[in-house]
Amino acid sequence: MGLPDRGRGTAGRLLGWLGERAHPRHCERSGYGAALAQRLVRSGPGLGADPGRTEHASLSGHVCAALGHAPAGRRSVALHFDPNQGWSTLFPTEWTLSNSGAQTTFTGSGQLMSVVLGNDTSNLPNTPLSAGKEVRQESPVEIYGKTTYITVYQLSAGGFEYDSSAKFSATKSLLFSFRDTAARSGDTGLFKQLLASVIVT
Question: How many CA atoms lie within 13 A of 4 on its CB side?
Fold first, then answer.
């Protein structure tokens, strides 16, 4: 089945499909990310994305209870799709988005996620991005079919940072860095849910 309303942009049509079918069970490891990725692959090249801009649109409904830690499992989320860098992810709509060169930053209340593009993992920024000490590593973690791990850091100024990177092609690597300044424990649950929504093209 194709995506509905082919006149809409990539974000709108993907989120329209999610609005009809999304449920917290899609957030299970590999299930949610795989379902979203499968829809994008099935849709082929005619997604309607404007290669000169970044699209995002909002969706309200039963999407990833862990995104908002909401008892009812409801959270308004948005899809950020960057056709120039070739990746997309979901994020809570109350977060703000900014771009600076190869780095895209999503900022919430006391929380921040940065995505950095590089042509190789060796050219990505050193972690942690904020001063801190390594606490542990969690593995395996999957980002769009690539098995990797999360490094957890306790920050000197308080809170935690979680970092994960992967090489997706000969010329494309991505670093995902999540910082929670109010966290009292290194709970990577929200970060893992965001990683599960990532698609790399």
Answer: 7
User: Token pair 């098995």 is at which residue?
Assistant: 147
Say if strands 96-100 and 199-200 run parallel, antiparallel, or are unpaired. unpaired
Domain boundaries, the chain: 10-200
3-state SS track over the chain? CCCCCCCCCHHHHHHHHHHHHCCHHHHCCCHHHHHHHHHHHHHCCCCCCCCCCCEEEEECCCCCHHHHCCCCCCCCEEEEEECCCCEEEEEECCCEEEEECCEEEEECCCEEEEEEEECCHHHCCCCCCCCEEEEEEEEEEEECCEEEEEEEEEECCCCEEEEEEEEEECCEEEEEEEEECCCCCCCCHHHHHHHHCCEEC
Q: Which CATH superfamily is domain 10-200 in?
A: Mog1/PsbP, alpha/beta/alpha sandwich (3.40.1000.10)
Residuewise pLDDT in 10s, the chain (201 residues): 333 333 344 444 444 434 433 333 333 333 444 444 444 433 333 333 333 334 444 333 333 434 444 434 556 889 999 999 999 999 999 999 999 999 999 999 999 999 999 999 999 999 999 999 999 999 999 999 999 999 999 999 999 999 999 999 999 999 999 999 999 999 999 999 999 999 999
Q: From CA 26, how far away is CA 18, in angstroms rounded? A: 10
